[in-house]
Write a structure and sequence with these properties.
By secondary structure, this protein is mainly β. It has one helix at about 315-320; strands at about 5, 15-25, 25-35, 45-50, 55-60, 75-85, 85-95, 100, 105, 110-120, 135, 150-160, 160-170, 175-180, 190-195, 205-210, 215-225, 235-245, 250, 255-260, 265-270, 280-285, 295-300, 300-305, 305, 310, 325, 340-345, 350, 355-360, 365, 380-385, 390-395, 400-405, 410-415, 425, 430-435.
């Protein structure tokens, strides 16, 4: 079976959202949206990969594929939990109301019936796609409760008072999350909805609720949310929240921040790692296939922390530890990539294989112009908000550069094409390089 190091890549053809991220029986399982027939979006299946350390990934056979009326046009995104030793997947099954007769993999008008489905596995690898699927939450009929077509991506977790399920949706063209509760993980009761106004996006998909030692966080992939008029107009917004289990209600602060300032990350999935820490992986949006013919990959795992009210996303310690063998130059690195550390002051810059990282007007700024297709929309240049210190950690490989500022206080993640192994810069201080430890 195909393997990936540091970053999980598409095994072939197309991938998008990560799904069903779960530490289960000593391994991390990550499922993902997968179209196995072409390097383009189409009828969604669930691919599957596993890892013991979040660094070495091995692809498995297909986990989910359409078999019933409710998912005949795709197994959309969802999550995974463990109950009584079994792995339980939740996902959105879709049925197009008007399929395109010339391409059955897309809808003519975007209208679909969206049901929330569930399937169980005794070992986390075998799923009975023919007889094992059940409807957990049927398609919504009341437009004041949610949208018939645009309600999807169940996130399920266990609390003190039972199980909770969150869906992304839209009501009156305003993004919403819908909250359900269950005692047995089978029978679900709608309890409430939460959201803000239309300026925060017309649809909230891929919702994730995360409870950390420093505070509670809601992450949503907000469609039509365009901070400062920049592109793309769908980004991951992170909100401080308060979730009340007894009433199954959520209060959402308007004080948002972005998951990543590179604007290529979307549709994150969260789970708890082996030590119980919240960990996140996101889809890296790519404009075109790489030379090998695949398109789509995932970010390196990063922790979710709240420090003094700020939501931070530092590189996961497993990745840092695995990529800790000192080297003197990137051209000595493992083919899977390398890690770099350095400090910047105002006006200083580093160029890693054509990707520039600079400190300008108190911000960390990146420029991928030299390693990005010229015939595709940007952004080519990205920047963080202003900071008062600039400690930089970079995880770089041929098709992705991830920049972590001040241990995840801000991050910039950018897809690239053909990143080189040379480097230059005008720093006063040193640059340290590390590669994967020898097996």
């Amino acid at each position: 079976m195909k393997t990936s190091l540091l970053h999980l890549h598409a095994p072939d053809h197309w991938v998008n959202d990560p799904n069903g991220f779960l530490y289960y029986r000593g391994q991390y399982h990550l499922f993902y949206q997968y179209f196995p027939y072409a390097a383009a979006w189409g009828t969604m299946h669930w691919g599957h990969a596993v890892s013991r350390d979040l660094v070495h990934w091995q692809h498995q056979v297909l986990a989910l594929f359409p078999t019933i009326r409710e998912d005949q046009n795709g197994c959309f995104s969802g999550s995974a939990v463990e109950q009584n030793g079994e792995m339980v997947l939740f996902y959105t099954g879709v049925r197009y109301l008007t399929p395109n007769p010339r391409n059955i993999h897309v809808s003519l008008d975007g209208k679909m019936e969206s049901n929330q489905l569930t399937i169980r596995s005794a070992d986390g690898f075998s799923f009975d796609n023919w007889q094992g699927k059940q409807v957990a939450v049927p398609a919504i009929a009341n437009p004041e409760m949610g949208d018939f077509s645009d309600t999807r991506d169940p996130k399920v977790w266990r609390g003190k008072h039972g199980w909770y399920l969150m869906l992304g949706s839209t009501v009156r063209r305003e993004g919403r999350v819908l909250l359900y509760q269950s005692r047995d993980l089978k029978h679900w009761e709608y309890r409430s909805q939460a959201g803000l106004d239309a300026s925060y996006g017309w649809m909230w998909e891929c919702p994730n609720y995360v409870s950390t030692s420093g505070g509670e966080v809601l992450l949503v992939s907000a469609m039509g949310f365009c901070p400062n008029g920049e592109t793309p107009d769908s980004v991951v917004a992170c909100f401080p929240v308060r979730f009340r289990e007894e009433s199954c209600t959520m209060e959402i602060s308007k004080r948002y921040q972005l998951l990543d300032y590179g604007r290529d990350l979307y549709a994150p999935q969260t789970t708890l790692d082996e030590q119980g820490r919240p960990v996140l992986i996101a889809w890296v949006r790519m404009p075109k296939p790489v030379e090998e013919g695949w398109i789509g990959m995932f970010s390196a795992p990063r922790l979710v922390e709240v420090r003094k009210g700020r939501i931070c996303f530092p590189l996961h310690p497993n990745v840092r530890q695995a990529c800790s063998s000192p080297i003197s130059h990137p051209n000595q690195a493992h083919p899977a990539g390398y890690r770099a550390r350095f400090s910047l002051e105002e006006g200083e810059w580093v160029n890693l294989g054509g990707f520039e990282i600079a400190c300008r007007e108190g911000r960390i700024c990146t420029d991928r112009t030299a390693v990005y297709p010229k015939d595709t929309p940007g952004p080519y240049c990205c920047q963080t908000p202003a900071l008062d210190r600039w400690e930089v950690e970079v995880l770089a490989e041929e098709h992705l550069v991830e920049v972590f500022v001040n241990d995840g206080e801000y991050t910039i993640s950018n897809a690239v094409y053909g990143l080189g192994r040379e480097w230059k810069g005008n720093l006063a201080g040193p640059v340290s390089f590390y590669t994967l430890q020898q097996e």
